[in-house]
């Protein structure tokens, strides 16, 4: 496996803080750290918008359960877009996917896409660890038809687990080079991050960015993380 440089790896990272107990001071620290580390973006809860930072700003929608009405997800996405979000990571209704109601999943993605049109980047969190391979493929195909820009493995909050190399590879095989694939959930080492990239991930959702980037070159700059 080819080892990515520190800068190459940083450019793939959504530096993430979605803990329910996070404060505004925590988010401000996250933004400063993202700028220092050179990550692609920060990813924060929608209640923390707007965020002043020189990197991209991502937020979540229907998080973490996905068990919200489609119109509520759409309204949340529209509000986030109006408050400066560059990217929105929406959680699908996983129960619908597990029940084989893929048309309904696709329609809720369409509703969010309509509420937050391009150039907002829409990522669709499918909770891959809770789905069969066939369900993963069907949801990814529906996300592409509905106009999503990325499919994403996980919220990181589901008891079934987070990202896996198998799921990332299957998602990449399904969407080809037409959509991005984001691996998120349980990625805590440089080796794990690089394994996800090797499997096909084009973005990484990480909360341990500083430690992972320190491992990438042995010396991440600046003070210790929050």
Model description:
- The chain has one domain: Alpha-Beta Barrel (TIM Barrel).
- 42% of the residues lie in helices and 16% in strands.
- The chain has helices spanning 6-10, 24-37, 70-82, 94-98, 102-115, 133-145, 165-175, 190-199, 209-217; strands at residues 13-17, 41-44, 56-61, 87-91, 121-125, 150-152, 180-184, 203-206.
- Helix 3 (70-82) packs parallel to helix 5 and helix 7 packs parallel to helix 8 (190-199).
- The longest helix has 14 residues, at 24-37.
- 50% of the residues are buried.
Summarize the structure.
This protein is an alpha/beta fold. Helices cover 42% and strands 16% of the residues.
Strand content: 15-25%
Along the chain, the helix and strand elements come as HEHEEHEHHEHEHEHEH
Would you report the number of β strands? 8
Radius of gyration: 16 Å
Q: Give me the side-by-side strand order of the main sheet.
A: 1-2-3-4-5-6-7-8
